[in-house]
Amino acid sequence: MVWRAPSGQVLGENILSMRICFVVDKFPTLSETFVLDQIAGCLERGMEVSVVCNEMAFGKDSNVDDARWRTLPGPVVSWWGGLNRYRSLLKRWSGRFWDKLSTCIDLANAHKLRNVDVIVAHFGHNGLRVARIMKRRRISAPLVTIFHGTDVGRPMHDNTLGCYRPVFEKGILQLPVNAFFRQALIDVGAAPTQVVVHHMGIRPGEIEYHWRSWQQGTLSFISVCRLTEKKGVEYALRALAGLPHRDWIYSVIGGGELLEELKLTAVDLGIADRVTFLGPRPHGEVKQRLRDAHVFLLPSVAGRDGDLEGIPVALMEAMAGGLIAVSTYHSGIPELIEDQKTGFLVPERDVAALAGKLTWIAENPGLCEPIALAARRKVEADFNADILNERFAQIVARLGETGSVT
């Protein structure tokens, strides 16, 4: 179920005074640009935005150090205030009492969530915190919870997804980022009418589409991601090692706990001379390297702890820019990529299948060009942040004015 705004519908006159409070983990942060873009969309539509977060990160990343985040119409506050510095310590030492202790501290700070028209919690655990406060009648604004990935995958893996039942009971709307998550939430008790797929997106108008053939040159593969298990970079390396076409290079941008292990894997596979691990790079450099590459690799897998992707924004950006996207039948990725039509998909952890797709791509640059163009059109149509932000604004405006999504 994907929410669609009625044709020709105009936001209500009260939109200019609509007060929305976003509840997030860290603000602002580059790893959650989808939150910043959604906030920007609300600001562009005249809404009064405030933020309650666990950690304020102003000045820590030049890529998101935008004056807009420092000068929001509403306040940006730490949920626990001065106690936040002890949050990790309390979580470690309170053991089984952590749940009750943290809820008590949340309740003591519930006033920070009052005097708003709609509360938007990013990630299920933040929605749960707000729902527990609502259960004690400390706040009454409609709650919208956006589910992204880990917040669904890990509880599914542990068979604890039912922990979100207070969110289903007290929240008015759940917005999972893909249909796979929607069904998972319904399966544990969420009312189908209150669970609506709302994709995250990008602004394709800010990304120039440029097709570049590898017919007469070196085929350039690239991955941009945190080097964690779910990104599947190990399988990209193993597939490339079996590629008959030898004129290729692979650039990996990003840091993470698997960086050194992946470097050793490249050495063991005998491809270290063709693979460059660049670590985290400035945003401008990343954009340039994407413009110079041909194929974007992200063979995502379910982590052993249940960690899942939503629909990776990095894939959308690559597709908008004219790269061929290669990924897996994982979580919501098939909602973005249709195999051999807007990109290429293989089963998770299937090195042979991945190598086969990469070999076909290497040998058929001419047949890949229409696929790249179709991928751009797919992003423009279904993952366009301007359109998605308008839909989101319609949703919260209706909630703020009527308390209902119907």
From TrEMBL:
GO terms for molecular function: glycosyltransferase activity. It comes from the Bacteria. It is an enzyme of class 2 (transferase). Residues 32-199 form the Glycosyltransferase subfamily 4-like N-terminal domain. Keywords: Glycosyltransferase, Transferase. Residues 220-376 form the Glycosyl transferase family domain. Gene3D superfamilies: Glycogen Phosphorylase B. InterPro entries: Glyco_trans_1 (IPR001296), Glyco_trans_4-like_N (IPR028098). Its EC number is 2.4.-.-. Belongs to the glycosyltransferase group 1 family. Glycosyltransferase 4 subfamily. This is Glycosyltransferase. It comes from Mesorhizobium australafricanum.
